Here is the input.
Amino acid sequence: MKKVLLSLLGFVPLFAIIAGVNVYVDPANLFRADIMVESVYDITSSGKNANNVSDYRDRLFVEKRILDMTAAPENVVLGSSHGAQIDSAILDGETFNSCVTGATIEDVAAIYEIYKSTGLLPKRYILSVDTWFFDENKNDNRCELYLGEYYERFVKENVDESFSVNPSSKNKDHFDFEGLFSLSYFQTSAYHILDGSYVKFRTGAVPADDNSLSLGMVKVDGSYVYPVSYSCADTDTVNLRAMTARDGVVTSLRDSGGMSIGKRELFEALVRSIISDGSELVIIES
Here is the structure.
């Protein structure tokens, strides 16, 4: 037994190195997510664009910005990152883009419920709809994790009054222990140390005005500007991405489980509620 314990103790330094590198670099903001949310919120609330923004808990950012509003914007954009570039320059009137990464129809209903809870209803909702909104197999738990109370309230008021979200899934302050000791995350983190790009992740969000210098920018109106290296990629890079998507078949189509009756009912309830509020609804396909 003593030999086994001594053998296990021999791995402690290795696990410590893995955890230390993962936390220090943290390229996907698994451990600094709340700090990034606060910095993006503070910068955009002050009237500046927040640059150097990558993966972070954008659902919490959207919630904070909506609850901070004193007047309803004329236009509100709802949907996934596919609609995140719709900004005030494209639409006529003051706009706040409330799109979040990988949004499901549950996310959209929850974010709509945040607006309704404030009593500040916009003139117009622009809803960017993805095919996976209605997919039986699309079960992303980020809505319940970060926006569970709003989603539960919407469903109770509009679909099923007996519905409730599992309390264990509503944990905005969860710590990612899996990511802490993840070998794949360690490889990514180590790569960024070797090429020097880890500095970007350590810096966090910074104020900026020039979209042409975007390293991943959340603008004052909530819209997102992709990094220049991504949005202005050369032809060969774009062709490679297209080939990869074609050969792998787009995930949302490959893993489709067909139309979900429950998700369709949720979508219909959302449409009815928006119209009953007196707001206009514009639906676009992502």
Remarks:
- Residues 67 and 201 are 28 Å apart (CA to CA).
